[in-house]
Automatic annotation (TrEMBL):
Family (UniProt): Belongs to the aldose epimerase family.
Any GO BP: galactose catabolic process via UDP-galactose, Leloir pathway
Highest taxon of source: Eukaryota
CDD domains in the cross-refs: galactose_mutarotase_like
SUPFAM superfamilies associated with the record: Galactose mutarotase-like (SSF74650)
Listed name of the protein: Galactose mutarotase-like domain-containing protein
Keywords: Carbohydrate metabolism, Isomerase, Signal
Molecular-function GO terms, alphabetical: aldose 1-epimerase activity; carbohydrate binding
Signal peptide: 1-19
Amino acid sequence: MRYSSMIIAALAEAAVVCGLPVEAAIPPPDATGRYTISAPGIKAQFIPYGASLTNLFVAGKDGKDVDVVLGYDDADYYPKDPGHPVYNSIPGRYVNRIGHAQYTLDGVTYKTEDNDGGNTLHSGTNNWSFRFWNVTALSADSITFAISDASNSSLNMIGRVDASVTYSVTNSTWNIKMTATSPDNRTPLMLTQHTYFNLDAYKNPATPLIWDHTLHLPYSKRYLEADQGALPTGKILTAAPGSINDFASAPNLQFGHSVNATGFKGNCGANGVCEGYNGYWIIDDAPKDAVVLTLGSAFSGVKADLRTTQPGIVLYSCSWMDGSAPVKADQGLSAAQKVVKSSCVAIEAQDYPDGINHPEWNRTSAQITGPGQTYNWESSWTFGLV
Ligand SMILES: *[C@@H]1O[C@H](CO)[C@@H](O)[C@H](O)[C@H]1NC(C)=O
Ligand SMILES: *[C@@H]1O[C@H](CO)[C@@H](O)[C@H](O)[C@H]1NC(C)=O
Ligand SMILES: *[C@@H]1O[C@H](CO)[C@@H](O)[C@H](O)[C@H]1NC(C)=O
Ligand SMILES: *[C@@H]1O[C@H](CO)[C@@H](O)[C@H](O)[C@H]1NC(C)=O
Ligand SMILES: *[C@@H]1O[C@H](CO)[C@@H](O)[C@H](O)[C@H]1NC(C)=O
Ligand SMILES: *[C@@H]1O[C@H](CO)[C@@H](O)[C@H](O)[C@H]1NC(C)=O
């Protein structure tokens, strides 16, 4: 059912008259379950489940809109999806892996849930990407989602955390701003926005794979070595120009520049089964507000520039996509098309994975938030043509 703007206005007026907070008047989503925000050159749609982005429309080189992110047409399917790949959501309260499912804070060792081969992934059960967030503000170009995470709701993540994410759009740019507090306890807190891209919207007849895209990380020669379970070992490596993990040495490097290289299969672990990328690149010495990553596609002509306050970026090239998920109706060349292995890339600006277990990286204080402190995270994607 679609609520008319008249009813919305009446609800808002009634809320004010009754002295209720204005958020009581936030309208329900549209008939497809989505909230839509837009600005010149960009339209973005969201659902409360995981505070997830479902669709992101920007202009391609032919002037037509391209939906550049993965997702499902049916908003109700997100919570039912058996192979939930954290589609464009906010995982939390501590994103990525916690090594050996434990951490030590202020002298106490906490055992977290082992849900990823001996490690904890995205905080374990009851992670934020599997919950229905509240919409607390909405305008034509901005939406805010909030979550209150009870102490110990995920095993041994102690202390209540209150967090919010504001998505806004302006002039071909998608802005993402998160804040969080932990008023009662010091707790591990590290967030990201976990978007999966295919800038061709699966319409390139030459290939559905992501390897034809270009990728440049101008400040990221260094990356974290990881073990077979994608857990950082502690070692920081430097990618030689032209090597598999090099995206720094030249602009417009093909994302798949090393597809035929020895070691490409297995480059993201799983004893040779994970092909491509599932790792963390450090951003070194980037000027404030610099573009730290550019993803592009000659086929659609779309270019995406990332700016972030975060010290690094996770790249995951969708090796575990098994061809069971459909592409959206506005994507692909036929209704039967599926999300196949290595056909997308998740790009996640975040702090060093498992930094709470690596004091030698000096990230511990950034990854622990307690009473009187506010955690902040900010990124933006600006779209244009290659
Ligand atoms: C997140 O929570 C859901 C629901 O409890 C669970 O099925 C899933 O395994 C958890 N972890 C990850 C990494 O998705
Ligand atoms: C949404 O708000 C309600 C009412 O304040 C609260 O009970 C609920 O826990 C909130 N949901 C989340 C995910 O924080
Ligand atoms: C957290 O919950 C688990 C059960 O899920 C319990 O064993 C543990 O004692 C709780 N920890 C704290 C600090 O309350
Ligand atoms: C919008 O972006 C374009 C391209 O970056 C720029 O030329 C233009 O000045 C911007 N307009 C506004 C209102 O910011
Ligand atoms: C990889 O090998 C295939 C088959 O020989 C070839 O078509 C392709 O151009 C190669 N790709 C790169 C990036 O070298
Ligand atoms: C952490 O700080 C120490 C002391 O300032 C420094 O020697 C070390 O290089 C830093 N580690 C990293 C990974 O930046």
